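To illustrate the input format used throughout this study, we show a single complete record. The first block contains the structure-token representation of the backbone; no residue identities are included at this stage. The design step must infer an amino acid for every position from geometry alone.
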């Protein structure tokens, strides 16, 4: 997939919560530079390195001092994919990650956007993408969650550019609400990269052609906060040596969660559900 998209530049240098909400409602997203401090990012990487040293040590103790974090991850990917998966699955339990997820800085913004005093905090995640990773995501809306209304935080822990890839969106598409298209009822990964052709065809229609894709150039610590109905996806990492590390967290509206209103509903809304009726 070629990154042939307009670049969205950071223009929101300082914003109070009122302005964040205003821009969020207008565009479906807001970009805040330097949202995470360098010191917090440093702690996260220190803990990630400490965690990955455990599986690395079980294979070859001498490598933990010779290799960088990126090199250790790629080593596990090549030599022991199962242990690599175990490393990835346990990242969500690291205290530095959970400390960010439950911080007042994030939760206050999410509550204001959702207009709720109490909300559901989804599982935090470090998204890891490398050149041999086939799971970059075609554009989609965020379905299959607890709620029909979400606030998503996307925060890279490394500087992003079009070589290492990152987030690309279609501003203001959240105003379209839930959009039906062939394959909308499938999870983004299982839908595959062919979905992007479907999305591009959808937005080539005269009534939708004004919604152009934009790649967002971000530095480590910047944050993109976006609406679940905003069409978004990730570009592949084309850098052979660098891994793309991104922190993700979702906040779910309690009022828009069918599970606590209907005894027959499941905790997670099926992708095949009729979102217009929820």
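Output of the design step:
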């Amino acid at each position: 997939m070629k990154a042939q998209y307009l670049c969205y530049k950071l223009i929101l240098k300082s914003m109070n919560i009122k302005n964040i909400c205003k821009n969020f409602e207008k565009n479906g997203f807001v970009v805040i530079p330097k949202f995470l401090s360098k010191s917090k990012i440093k702690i996260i990487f220190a803990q990630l390195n400490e965690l990955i040293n455990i599986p690395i040590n079980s294979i070859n103790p001498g490598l933990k001092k010779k290799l960088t974090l990126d090199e250790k991850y790629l080593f596990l990917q090549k030599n022991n994919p199962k242990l690599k998966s175990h490393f990835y699955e346990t990242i969500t339990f690291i205290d530095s990650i959970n400390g960010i997820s439950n911080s007042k800085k994030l939760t206050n913004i999410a509550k204001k956007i959702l207009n709720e005093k109490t909300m559901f905090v989804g599982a935090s995640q470090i998204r890891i993408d490398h050149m041999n990773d086939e799971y970059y995501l075609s554009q989609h809306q965020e379905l299959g969650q607890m709620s029909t209304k979400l606030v998503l935080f996307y925060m890279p822990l490394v500087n992003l550019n079009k070589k290492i890839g990152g987030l690309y969106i279609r501003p203001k598409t959240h105003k379209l609400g839930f959009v039906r298209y062939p394959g909308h009822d499938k999870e983004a990964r299982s839908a595959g990269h062919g979905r992007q052709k479907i999305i591009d065809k959808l937005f080539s229609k005269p009534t939708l052609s004004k919604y152009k894709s934009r790649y967002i150039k971000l530095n480590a610590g910047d944050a993109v906060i976006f609406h679940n109905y905003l069409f978004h996806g990730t570009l592949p990492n084309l850098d052979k040596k660098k891994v793309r590390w991104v922190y993700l967290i979702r906040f779910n509206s309690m009022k828009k969660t069918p599970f606590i209103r209907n005894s027959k509903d499941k905790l997670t809304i099926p992708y095949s559900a009729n979102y217009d009726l929820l």
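Structural context for interpreting the output: Residues 1-5 have pLDDT under 50 and may be disordered. The CA atoms of residues 56 and 64 lie 6 Å apart.
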